[in-house]
């Protein structure tokens, strides 16, 4: 009992000493402006503390998972499995891991803009601990994305289920911090016009994408670019600054550069800094034209249905048809429409004819042009185009 208490006091004392020396270092090395598109060498907590407060738009963090892998792992044919047993993934137990997690997440929160969001990826080894600490610090979980691996490594010993997924926590700075970026329409368009869900099926990094040094994996936990592509496309805009405190082989930097975002990578080990630097050098940024994304509906100028009548695109008396001409309603001069049983806005009557609680009248109603149905949403798009 006494031994346990002494151990706990020692851990607390060490954590306090570490925090003090980090603060001292941070003061000496404070950056006045953001070192954009750079990899900074050192401990990520010290480095984050040396960056200006509330300065980065998004943080993507792939921290050590504390996998606690013991001994060598072999396939049934006795070949060696390249498991994650790097020294940077070793901690003296859960308490030490939790302290480290709390420290880096606190530093991350300081450097994140109030409009920013943070992504943290992990596995069953660490994600529950990270999740609890991230909430204690004040972040608000927006989603937990499940990355289901389409080609996971089998469970060679056959003692458990195949571990086929990892989890990404996506958080804003707290309940009231709601002005964060979420490119909803772009992600829907990306997903064949179906709202994107929180389960993503993507392969692990392999083949040509896997960086090699002297025939061996350059980094044991290189993440697939496709994963970062979704992360950055959904939660950042062109020109945003993305900070990755555990840069490794630089996957975040590579995708950020491709998508016209700025990156700041923090990494302790020279060999990974070199790997990432060489990798990012070869990346070309997509052209401005190719980087245009589908804007969020709320960022488009508002067009009332009445505007279409006002400017003669739809005349009063025109009949609007629902899909397959199963429903009809007549347009009136004041911008309302009337069906056999109801009258009101295009949305109200659309809902009423379908007996539905709500309806987006813009996407429900059509006009007939040369025997074809044309969505009134197309007419709205024409008005919007003329406004720009
Ligand atoms: C899980 S890996 C990240 C891999 C990366 N996402 C990629 O795609 O290559 C974690 C990385 O963080 C680095 N690291 C661990 N602790 C660190 C610390 N305190 N400060 C800076 N880097 C650290 C390790 O050297 C390792 O490269």
Please summarize what this structure is:
The protein is of the alpha/beta class. The chain is built from 13 helices and 16 strands. It is elongated and about 80 Å long.
Your description of this structure?
The strands form four sheets. Strands 1-10-9-2-3-5-4-6 form an eight-stranded mixed beta sheet, with helices on both faces. A four-stranded antiparallel beta sheet has the order 11-12-13-14, with helices on one face. α3 packs across α4 and α6 packs across α7 (251-258). The protein contains 13 helices and 16 strands. The model has no long low-confidence stretch (mean pLDDT 90). It is α/β, with parallel strands linked by helices and 388 residues long. The longest helix is centred in the first third of the chain and has 27 residues, at 2-28. The structure holds S-adenosylmethionine. S-adenosylmethionine (SAM) binds at residues 43-44, 62, 64, 88, 219, 221-223, 246, 248-249, 251, 266-269, 272.
Topology (SSEs and partners):
Layout: H1 2-28, E1 38-41, H2 44-49, E2 56-61, H3 93-111, E3 112-122, H4 127-137, E4 140-149, E5 165-172, H5 184-190, E6 199-202, E7 212-213, E8 216-217, H6 225-235, E9 241-244, H7 251-258, E10 262-267, H8 270-281, H9 288-291, H10 305-310, E11 319-321, E12 328-331, E13 337-338, E14 343-344, H11 346-354, H12 361-364, E15 366-369, E16 372-375, H13 376-387
Parallel strand pairs: 1-10, 2-3, 2-9, 4-6, 9-10
Antiparallel strand pairs: 3-5, 4-5, 7-8, 11-12, 12-13, 13-14, 15-16
The protein binds S-adenosylmethionine.
S-adenosylmethionine is lined by residues 43-44, 62, 64, 88, 219, 221-223, 246, 248-249, 251, 266-269, 272.
């Amino acid at each position: 009992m006494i031994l346990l208490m002494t151990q706990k006091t020692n851990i607390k004392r060490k954590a306090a000493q570490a925090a003090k020396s980090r603060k001292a270092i941070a003061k000496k090395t404070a950056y006045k402006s953001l070192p954009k598109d750079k990899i900074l060498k050192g401990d990520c907590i010290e480095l984050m503390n040396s960056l200006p407060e509330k300065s980065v738009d998004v943080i993507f963090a792939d921290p050590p998972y504390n996998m606690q892998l013991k001994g060598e792992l072999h396939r049934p044919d006795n070949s060696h499995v390249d498991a994650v047993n790097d020294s940077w993934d070793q901690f003296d137990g859960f308490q030490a891991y939790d302290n480290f997690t709390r420290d880096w997440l606190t530093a991350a929160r300081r450097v994140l803009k109030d409009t920013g969001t943070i992504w943290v990826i992990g596995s069953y080894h660490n994600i529950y601990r990270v999740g609890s600490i991230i909430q204690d610090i004040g972040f608000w979980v927006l989603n937990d994305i499940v990355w289901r691996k389409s080609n996971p490594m089998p469970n060679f010993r056959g003692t458990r289920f195949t571990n086929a997924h990892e989890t990404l926590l996506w958080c804003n700075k707290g309940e009231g911090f709601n002005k964060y970026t979420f490119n909803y329409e772009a992600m829907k368009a990306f997903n064949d016009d179906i709202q994107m869900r929180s389960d993503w099926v993507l392969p692990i990094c392999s083949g040509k994408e896997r960086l090699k040094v002297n025939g061996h994996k350059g980094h044991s936990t290189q993440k697939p670019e496709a994963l970062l592509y979704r992360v950055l496309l959904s939660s950042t805009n062109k020109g945003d600054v993305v900070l990755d405190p555990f840069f490794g082989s630089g996957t975040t930097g590579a995708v950020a550069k491709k998508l016209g975002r700025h990156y700041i990578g923090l990494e302790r080990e020279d060999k990974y800094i070199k790997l990432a630097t060489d990798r990012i050098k070869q990346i070309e940024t997509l052209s401005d034209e190719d980087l245009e994304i589908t804007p969020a509906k709320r960022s488009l100028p508002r067009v009332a249905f009445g505007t279409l009548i006002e400017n003669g695109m739809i005349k009063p008396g025109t009949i609007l048809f629902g899909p397959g001409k199963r429903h009809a309603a007549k347009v009136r001069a004041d911008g309302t429409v009337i069906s056999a049983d109801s009258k009101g806005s295009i949305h109200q009557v659309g809902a009423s004819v379908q007996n539905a609680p709500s309806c987006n009248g813009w996407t429900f109603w059509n006009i007939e042009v040369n025997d074809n149905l044309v969505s009134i949403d197309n007419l709205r798009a024409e008005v919007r185009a003329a406004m720009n």
